[in-house]
UniProtKB/TrEMBL annotation:
Keywords: Lyase, Metal-binding, Zinc. This is CENP-V/GFA domain-containing protein. SUPFAM superfamilies: Mss4-like. Residues 7-21 have a biased composition (Polar residues). The keyword Metal-binding applies. Residues 1-21 are annotated as: Disordered. It holds the Pfam family GFA. Belongs to the Gfa family.
Length: 89
């Protein structure tokens, strides 16, 4: 999450919808990828930027986990599952 004043778009114009009351979600109008989340009532002057949309998402590793109240129980051990770099064959 970043201060809204720190966000600068360099190209394009996202499509924004009101998803539930004060929650505003912005998407790429061409491919539908989620870009931003804003909620002035809960997070005034804050924009949540979807990490995968950044040029270098590795540069900003997560520091906290939020909204875990409804997390599925099995997510606590997800790191123990087998991994595949691509679809398994």
């Amino acid at each position: 999450m970043f201060a809204e004043s720190a966000l600068t778009l360099t190209q394009g114009q996202p499509k924004t919808i009101n998803s539930s009351g004060t929650a505003m979600r912005s998407f790429c109008p061409d491919c539908g990828s989620g870009l931003f989340y804003r909620n002035a009532a809960v997070l005034p002057e804050i924009v949540d930027v979807q990490i995968a949309t950044l040029d270098d998402p590795e540069a900003l590793p997560p520091a906290v986990q939020i909204q875990t109240a409804e997390r599925l129980h099995w997510m606590l051990q997800v790191q123990e599952l087998p991994e595949f770099e691509r679809f398994p064959s």
